[in-house]
Amino acid sequence: MPRQGTLPHDLIHFVVESSLPFRYGFLNLVAAGAEASFAMELAHDKSLTDIDVEAIQVEAIVEALQTQLWGAYFDFASFDEANQLACSARGKTALAINEEQSLQLYQTVLDLFEQWQALPFHSSMPLHFDDANESEHVSAS
Question: Out of 6-10, 48-52, 96-100, 124-128, which region has the weakest mean confidence (pLDDT)?
């Protein structure tokens, strides 16, 4: 994954999907055998109304966290609004996340970003989902 000034989108997926009780986020769908392009289409295409709610909720939380990262500080009200709007735009109900939970996700993202930044180019960093989730292995470019 390329360096881009903040944690890559797919690594934010790792944080969200390994921290919250989701089974149908992007990484989980790929780990279960879905093509990456198909899993991306499910979570990003607003016209697909029969998508599993979890895929949309995961994507909304990832997007909301990503906006916080680009802003360089955490604001719960804007995080919550982004989460709500992203789900609403896709016709789904947002997962209710309180301020403590969302701040913990943000801190986990910051911690992983620090590890990511310290990783030498062209090396890798093993990441592991908890419990039933499959192991993931990512490489820096």
Answer: 48-52
Please check whether residue 86 is in contact with residue 63, taking contact to mean a CB–CB distance below 8 angstroms: yes
pLDDT of amino acid 12 = 94
Phi and psi at 126, nearest 5°, equal -75, 135
Say whether pLDDT at 47 is over 50: yes
- CB-CB neighbours of 33 under 10 Å: 6
Give dist(CA 89, CA 127) in Å, integer: 31
Residue 134, by phi and psi: left (phi above 0), alpha (psi -120 to 50) or beta?
beta
What average pLDDT does range 76-99 have in this prediction?
A: 95
Tokens linked to 13? 């997926």
